[in-house]
Design a protein that fits this description.
- The chain contains six helices and five strands; from the N terminus they run H-H-E-H-E-H-E-H-E-H-E.
- By secondary structure, the protein is α/β, with parallel strands linked by helices.
- Helix 4 links the parallel strand 2 (55-60) and strand 3.
């Protein structure tokens, strides 16, 4: 019961994430979000390096990767990081307060053309026009988006 109450306390009545409650920090501590974080190696390292200067969240759709990211965070004792499992487009839209994220990182997302055929488009790719609108909504007015890809056409 205590854990459920604690988790419930981290959400607004509308089901939006209250970052300062998640991390137990002041409202002005920057929030950095890595989307498509894989096993969380990069985010864990960044959160550890930032220490109390920033709070971090990992958003990953694959359960096994979410579990690995959570395990890595817990085993390395990184307290300024939370792990969120779910579809990034839905989580941003439904659960992230507008203007509450300072920096979004997407490292090596699934490209729309995975077969090498220009006409073939994967339905799995995330970086669509509606998703960019959701990221903009989630970002603080001075927020940034950083996207890294090794796919030149992407």
């Amino acid at each position: 019961e205590g854990m459920l109450q604690q988790l419930t306390g981290c959400l607004s009545v509308q089901g939006r994430i209250l970052w300062h409650k998640v991390f137990g920090s002041a409202r002005d501590v920057p929030v950095k979000l890595e989307i498509c974080a894989g096993s969380g190696e990069w985010a864990v390292a960044q959160a550890r390096a930032d220490g109390s200067a920033a709070n971090w969240a990992v958003l990953e759709i694959m359960r096994d990767r979410t579990h690995r990211a959570f395990s890595r965070m817990a085993l390395e004792g990184v307290g300024n990081l939370c792990i969120i499992g779910g579809d990034a487009a839905q989580v941003l839209h439904r659960h992230v307060v507008a203007g509450s994220v300072d920096h979004i990182f997407i490292n090596f997302p699934e490209p729309p053309h995975t077969s090498g055929d220009e006409a073939a488009e994967s339905q799995l790719h995330l970086l669509t026009a509606p998703f960019f609108c959701e990221m903009q909504r989630a970002l603080h007015p001075t927020g940034r988006i950083t996207i890294l890809s090794d796919n030149g056409r992407y």
